[in-house]
Design a protein that fits this description.
alpha+beta, three-stranded antiparallel sheet, 3 helices, 25% strand
Length: 61
């Protein structure tokens, strides 16, 4: 996510690379209570993830 505090799922998939789909990301994160939500970034509203949610997940691991 770089320095971003939130990222659209499509942009996250591009950063993750080949083999990742929105369904796979959701499947991996859902057991930890991390789910995508509507994120407005640059005036565009799409599903995405918040950095704080992901950091909380890794901090608890």
């Amino acid at each position: 996510m770089g320095e971003a505090d939130r990222m659209h799922t499509a942009d996250l998939l591009e950063a993750l690379g080949p083999g990742w789909t929105s369904g796979r990301v959701a499947q991996v994160l859902k057991p930890y209570g991390v789910t995508p939500g509507q994120e407005v970034i640059g005036g565009v509203n799409r599903n995405g993830y918040r950095r704080a949610d992901l950091e909380a997940l890794f901090a608890s691991a």
